[in-house]
Amino acid sequence: MGDKQKVKVLVVDDEPDIVDLLTYNLKKEGYEVESAEDGVKAVKIAGKFQPDVILLDIMMPIQDGVETCRQLREIPELKGTFIIFLTARAEEYSEIAAFDVGADDYITKPIKPRALMSRIAALFRRESKKEQELTQIKIKDLIIDRTSYTIDKSGKTITLPKKEFELLYFLAKNPNMVFSRDDLLQNIWGADVFVLARTVDVHIRKVREKIGEDYITTVKGVGYKFDLN
Q1: Which ranges does the entry annotate as DNA-binding region (predicted)?
Q2: Packing angle between helix 65-72 and helix 39-49, nearest 10 degrees?
């Protein structure tokens, strides 16, 4: 993954000028690039192309970017794919919706190609560090497996979207330690990605819905911890 010659990027946008701009700059950096002008085509192409990165607009014909991201996150072969929203939508609810369906980053237009290349590189650097961590954590009645992004709870397999999994993994790796929302944003989304604090709350709620309420405790006025008690 560190060799850019092997990194594949899917550009999804209905504006030809933006697709051309992104394609030109990505290819200049050595990436292999495919494109789609709407969400439905993006899902079909992604299944065959299996990109490492997807650059995704929100406002598109036929199917918007948020629904497209949700469908992409359901494709098992794309569990490790980075999805970056590139959009003119700067409203808070649009950003929360994007991260809620599994986005790794959210960048508002106008696009600055050099800054975008830097953000993509930062995602790969952070992923490389994570790959050096333990692949499996056994804690309480959970087995948390980073290779498959699954949780075994008393013999039952639970699959979490990427960011929900990483949030649980991080807290379980540091049991009984309290982390603020800012701490979690830094460690899960990274310093290069601007994410609203509410996004952490949404992801915590979703993790609790899937594994139960008895693992992640809210420490009022401070943050969250994986509780061993």
Answers
A1: 134-228
A2: 30
